[in-house]
Specification:
This protein is α+β, with helices and mostly antiparallel strands. The protein contains eight helices and two strands. It has helices at about 20, 25-30, 35-45, 50-55, 60-85, 115-125, 125-130, 140-155; strands at about 85-95, 100-110. A hairpin with a 2-residue loop joins strand 1 and strand 2 (about 100-110).
């Protein structure tokens, strides 16, 4: 019997990169809206796993990162504004004797304490963390324990 040779398949066309398949501006905008990778995948009819594979394409990854950075910047700006307080023009609409009346005014939002705390804990954790740890040597520790014993004994 002769040697059987396997027929080689001819290579097909090179697979397209994600940046050639998808609109990169749309990827950026979806990221800027704050969508997760899973949601972006669903938008394009893809799985999160496929989106993760697409991240190997530098053009796709750049568009995705750019969009997510925009979303993060918007949240930072909103948190900052809530922390320091802000005002904006607004319109009050009232009805008097059957007629609608528009009255422009300045709407004010005072600083919000929780936003301040969140901002500071994340921006300056060394100064604003809830728990502080102190390094106490053995001599100081034993002196403190003795003092606590005396206080417990009432004297």
């Amino acid at each position: 019997m002769g040697k059987q040779t396997k027929k080689r398949k001819k290579p097909g066309p090179k697979p397209k990169l994600p940046s050639e398949k998808l609109d990169m501006e749309e990827v950026r905008k979806l990221g800027a809206l704050g969508l997760t990778d899973t949601e972006i995948g669903e938008w394009f009819g893809l799985t999160e796993r496929t989106i993760n594979r697409y991240k190997k394409d530098p053009v796709f990854m750049s568009a995705l990162k750019k969009g997510k950075m925009e979303a993060d910047a918007n949240v930072k700006r909103a948190l900052y504004r809530r922390a320091i307080g802000y005002s904006h023009p607004a319109v009050y609409i009232s009805v008097y004797e059957g007629k609608a009346k528009k009255t422009p005014y300045e709407k004010h939002y005072p600083p919000e304490t929780l936003a301040c705390i969140f901002w500071l804990k994340n921006r300056e954790p060394e100064n604003w963390k809830d728990r502080h740890e102190y390094d106490v040597d053995k001599g100081t520790k034993s002196a403190l324990l003795e003092l606590m014993d005396k206080i417990r004994e009432g004297g």
